[in-house]
Amino acid sequence: AQKITQTQPGMFVQEKEAVTLDCTYDTSDPSYGLFWYKQPSSGEMIFLIYQGSYDQQNATEGRYSLNFQKARKSANLVISASQLGDSAMYFCAMREALESYNKLIFGAGTRLAVHP
Amino acid sequence: GAGVSQSPSNKVTEKGKDVELRCDPISGHTALYWYRQSLGQGLEFLIYFQGNSAPDKSGLPSDRFSAERTGGSVSTLTIQRTQQEDSAVYLCASSSTREETQYFGPGTRLLVL
Description:
The complex is a heterodimer of chains A (116) and B (113).
Chain A: E1 4-5, E2 10-14, E3 19-21, E4 24-25, E5 32-39, E6 46-52, E7 60-61, E8 64-69, E9 74-79, E10 88-96, E11 105-106, E12 110-115
Chain B: E1 5-7, E2 10-13, E3 19-24, E4 31-37, E5 43-50, E6 65-69, E7 75-79, E8 88-95, E9 103-104, E10 108-112
Parallel strand pairs in B: 2-10
Antiparallel strand pairs in B: 1-3, 3-7, 4-5, 4-8, 6-7, 8-9, 8-10
């Protein structure tokens, strides 16, 4: 079974609108971390936001927020006020404290296109 | 401060040749990771180094792949007898500890003809 599932291969949004990128995960480890990375066409992976499994509040970083629903095992990324520069691939990733503690497990990614 | 650097940025080689990819982590980061990203795919873990501990090689796809980390800093990923299926972007990341966020380098794009 996939540990990280990103069901949206592609999304588009109008500039200045908000967009939600979906991520569901599968783990039996009680302690884990969830990450979102952005990969522009230039190829580098840029860290955006982190949510720990024991964090009581949803993580926020500027225009990025993480809608963490633990019971549903989802960690959706919300980008508010989209900008043209947000056009990129977005990857959800997980690190488990026990089973995969030495690595990040990545989803297949969602390609976001922001239209003017 | 300086981020993770990788060299070369691009490498074209012929099938059967050996290649070496280099990663220079963020200064002070003790954990170093190599990942591979095939065209249009997510990232696949290859190997992890933590200080002077034995590396976690569980992600290496075959014995043609090896990596070392000298002096707890710079790492080299070596692919022997390259095959066309080795064509991918090889990304290196580092973190201050295993539990902390991983920061990635720009990657090396390898093309095996």
